[in-house]
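Forum > Structural Biology > Help requests

Title: Can anyone predict the 3D structure of Queuine tRNA-ribosyltransferase?

Hi all, first post here. I have the sequence for Queuine tRNA-ribosyltransferase but no way to get a structure on my laptop. I'd be grateful if someone could post the structure tokens.
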Amino acid sequence: MYKLIKKDGKARRGEFTTVHGTVQTPAFMNVATAGAIKGGISSYDLKNLKCQVELCNTYHLHLRPGDTLIREMGGLHRFIGWAGPILTDSGGFQVFSLAQLRKIKEEGVTFQSHIDGRKIFMGPEESMRIQSNLGSTIAMAFDECVENPAPYEYSKKSCDRTERWLYRCKDEMTRLNALHDTINPNQMLFGINQGCVYEDLRVQHMESIVKLDLDGYAIGGLAVGEPAVDMYRIISTVEPYMPADKPRYLMGVGTPVNIIEAVSRGVDLFDCVMPSRNARHGHMFTFNGIVNIINAKYTNDERPIAEDCDCPVCKNHSRAYIRHLFKANEMLGMRLAVMHNLYFYNTLMERIREAIEEGTFEQFKERYVPILDKRCKD
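Reply #1:
Sure, ran it for you. Structure tokens for Queuine tRNA-ribosyltransferase below:
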């Protein structure tokens, strides 16, 4: 259930209540693809990094260790040691981005595993069954992810197929949630809006899928290489057609600036591998811009990564030490960097929520959009 607390322009401050806890929105979902944040971060660490939601991936967990094994272990929450909300991606994006020799039919997609090449079939029912085995809080509908840009006619056919698949996802989830031995009988279903960068397709598709009265709605197929201006244009185009009483999720986004811009257009939920991936290469986010910790100028810098940050890393370690760890190829360097970046992202969402509550979000946006994606001057 979504409760709208305050609006500032189109920016929304809300609460999203689930069987595994209430999420304060706007919120960033920390990406634990295979049940862990890359960089040596555990679910226990996340509790100290202000994480509200973990995002795990259906495709990866199905291939390894297997969703049936996770079910036998009591479900994903018990398996990874996280009691809060978990969203599982449907696997659709990975099927189309990682798999080789895939073949799309109305029934679903046959593809080869990127791990060992074995042939696998996944369709709406299979995706729902896998996610039911995982017992996640929120299951994403199985959709077709097309290249962007894609020809208009193919995009239209893809939207129609994704809509038909969505009906099948809903029917299968209803059946699974009613079973006596279902791990999470309160599992939610989010539908995904597609249509590439074609405004009419996006609107038509959103108008169609809202008729299913799902638990939430996502905008998919963006942040895949198109200019940011196109992403913002599509969000602004689709937003008026998204239910005001349901959470809105922009998939795979993004940079701190992307997030602020999307919040200003009415988005509530985000996910992206950027904070952990960039951290593993020494790129640290701060409210003064990006710090490339590997730079020689930080060799004897006694300051923390960010002097205004109270994360466990900035409280205890210097830039010089973290740079040394990276140069010495010590795993701890990546771990500390990822911890800082996740804390920054979750703190960014806190400050966004506070700004909306105070009616100062536009000033917040004007202050931080020009600097957050730029290199820190010092």
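The first strand starts at residue 2 and ends at 8. The chain has two domains: 2-272, 279-368.
Shout if anything looks off.
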